[in-house]
Records
---
Amino acid sequence: MFNLILFGPPGSGKGTQSDRLVEKYGLVHLSTGNLLRSEIAEKTPLGIEAKNFMDKGQLVPDEVVIGMIDNCLELHREAKGFLFDGFPRTANQAKALDRLLELKKTAIHSVLALDVSEEELVKRLLERGKTSGRSDDTNESVIRNRFSVYQNETAPVAEHYKALHKFKAIPGEGSVEDISNALSTQIDKVLERQREEQEAFD
Ligand code: ADP
């Protein structure tokens, strides 16, 4: 299996790059943001609860998103691997993910972070807000709040994976094509290493 986390602040391009990577590597895309938005669209109790947090730029409680991820992992037992996008977003979520994957005799193999300046992020999010229909992208104070949540709660998740030597930052400004090539180069390296280890084991 190959399990990847695409990491980075709101607006760093995780969604765009995820679409390309899942296609290229045959992974299942798990975006907690997308999963939550479809719960909201269907007006489920979970969606109604989540919307209150999301509209303010706050995180949805850990139990809710961890439960969603657990369900999705169960639904895709035959997957070649997963691409986690927007998850884990807290140290607690990262620990829960490690446990869930361990139960499935697998783990996270790589964490790739998209590096983008705050100025560029605000610009992109406000631009996206004009067409995305996402209420959390139209208000600058909600966007700033998402950044401060990212700094305080999500950035520490990087430390967790740095300590495990699984973390690599990639410049996230430039053309979509160049960024996706840089991500692919890194993924190919990790896959190659995985193949060598497997051969040595066989
Ligand atoms: P972005 O990265 O652009 O903020 P997302 O679609 O990933 O967009 O997330 C939108 C919102 O959904 C977040 O601001 C948060 O409220 C909620 N959310 C998404 N993923 C998580 C998560 N793993 N934990 C808690 N809340 C989440």
---
Amino acid sequence: MTQDRRNRAWYGKLDKDGFIHRSWMKNQGYPDHVFDGRPVIGICNTWSEFTPCNSGLRELADYVKRGVWEAGGFPVEFPVMSTGETQMKPTAMLFRNLLSMDVEECIRAYGMDGVVLLGGCDKTTPGQIMGAASVDLPTIVVSAGPMLNGKWQGRDIGSGTDVWKFSEAVRAGEMSLADFMAAESGMSRSRGVCMTMGTASTMSSLVEAMGLCLPMNGTLPAVDARRQALAHLSGRRIVAMVNEDLRLSKVLTRAAFENAILANAAVGGSTNAVVHLLAIAGRVGVDLSLADFELGSDVPLLVNCMPSGKYLMEDFCYAGGMPAVLKELAPLLRPSLTVTGTDISAYAEGATCWNRDVIRPFAEPLKPAAGIRVLRGNLAPEGAIVKPSAATPELLEHEGPAHVFDSIEDLKANIDRDDLPVTPETVLVLKGCGPKGYPGMPEVGNMPIPAALVRRGVRDMIRVSDARMSGTAFGTVILHVSPEAQAGGPLALVRTGDRVRVSAARGELALLVDDAELARRRAAWRPDPPAYDRGYAKLYVDHVLQAHRGADLDFLVGKDTRPVTRESH
Ligand code: FES
């Protein structure tokens, strides 16, 4: 068995190459016997002080190592690029694919037999899984875990969700700037990821629904000692997975993706899950399309967490976490192998819900039919999405005149103009914020409500763009319009005053302009000149796929599991 292990090609050779691989590792104090062929477990760490959500991962890696040693493996931690969602410009999404390349090439180039992915902040989880899927070794995820509930002026406040609300309240003159500034410290008061059901907690919850981690990984708070124990157990489990040859592709089947889509609806998960699941599926060879997300459209909202509900991740964890949700979804779940070697149904067996206001029974949901809706029409031939659980129900069937912003700069310069010609019926349209246009498809789709309307008490209106929005955001926001404006999609042709029709029930996003007029506009249209002429950003813009294909780079789709045979010496 040991002769078959991948690490033997690095550490098992009794020649100059083996000497070099072992000798330099020994400068860290490793004795001879750890190179005896035992499973070498890479611990892929996205710890960074620029990624505060992942700031606990350096310590958490030590608990993974305990488990690996205990199970007879040899743990080796390595850093990869870390994408700090709140810190990177122009947007962390620009770098998700670069992180995935870093992860993929490190796993392939180093002599490991299995890998533990330590991620958390939004793009780190999908970026790591995308990279690992393209090498396909035994892989297990250990997430950073959410921050403790935010606390301010005697009440709970949630990452992101309350920032948007406070910001609007300041603009409406309902909140002082001093209070706004004071809320900062109470919002983020422990290490961990956003404690709303934002993208990070969505992805860690879906990772659990896909069976890529041990039960409760999705929700245990970052500072809960049980997360350290879970990291220890995950270290033990990855060694067994190497011995069982339980590779990522055996877990990441079509059934796992379908379970993720069902779970995303039940937890009120982020719209960002769509681009991430599509990109991961592309790496592992599962034929997933935007249309498959309609599978979740009739699934009710069960988890009462911001932004779709009122509680936070700490409450979700104490109420029973993902196992309790999977128990509610059990009749819908597809049989699917997990990293434990058992079916996903085993995660739900024995689960108990301890708070029925936080995790609702399937028959008494928070909202019916909460899954992400896919919209199509002459404004989005390849699709767009909306999240009904975070939207205003009356606006999901709407027709109104467009007010167009040609760029994010146009939006920022004009949205608060007192004379902006908009009414609550206006459809705000933002162009130039897709994968190629921004570039990087930022989270600006939930554009602010014009100040003049905020002062009149308007808190939601239809917004349409080729951008994404934060998983912590809310509103009737139509996102990921594909193809994007910069790629010549019909979004590029919309003009202020055109009428736009939205019907979530019919899955429609229509621009009510006749074909002859659109043809005239297309003949006159030119893309913006490229913003970058060198470096990674140019590579990204030249190769990024559109949102309906997950915004991966075209040359990264798929995997390469061939052994690396050449040496550097
Ligand atoms: Fe990192 Fe929300 S900003 S998880």
